[in-house]
Amino acid sequence: MGVRLMVVDDHRLLAEALASALKLRGHRVLAAAAPAVGAADLVISRAPEVCLLGTAAPAEPGNFDPVVKIKRERPQVAVVVLGPVPSPRGIAAAFAAGASGYVRHDERIEGVERAIMKARAGEAAVAPQLLQGAFGELLNPAAQPDDEGQRLLQMLTPREVEVLVRVADGEDTRLIAAGMGIAPSTARTHVQRVLMKLGVGSRLEAAALAARTGLLDRATPPSPPDPKP
To the nearest whole number, what is the mean pLDDT of the chain? Predict the structure, then answer.
């Protein structure tokens, strides 16, 4: 008996070719579409038995958010991820999001079909050695690399962050003071504290460090001063 399924992949040609091959093997393919903002909603609305979801970067944070949404709204839908040569972390992320399996992009159609059938039956559709590595990653996750930008941001007060953003925008002490509604001497003190906390000797070095570590991308833009009545 054929499986009612959907194919969703970054590469439309791959999705359509895979869908065609599965149709020839007796399966009912509801749709073959490239991932987009509404991809998860499409799967939820069509409610297939199995969804084949393609990904190019399985270890990227948030890459499996569609899986989370699908499983939350349609827990009966089994999601099998199609991805590159997997790493334990990538497979762990897929299973942590609620996926039922992981199949390599270069897998033969017979292997894809076996994964589909296993997923529909409620089994883990992944090679045992890969599954073992994934569970090992889930139980003992590797330490995340030090995020220097976040670490530096936590060292600064909200007002000092605003000063740093203004420094990076090229504002001098007078403009910083006017923009923040404070005295120039207070603005100068804030600048010196920012330089000291960041361990740099000049405003230019502070701006360069903030840009290099991504600190500016995380900072809230300074608010315009309140208009005078």
Answer: 82
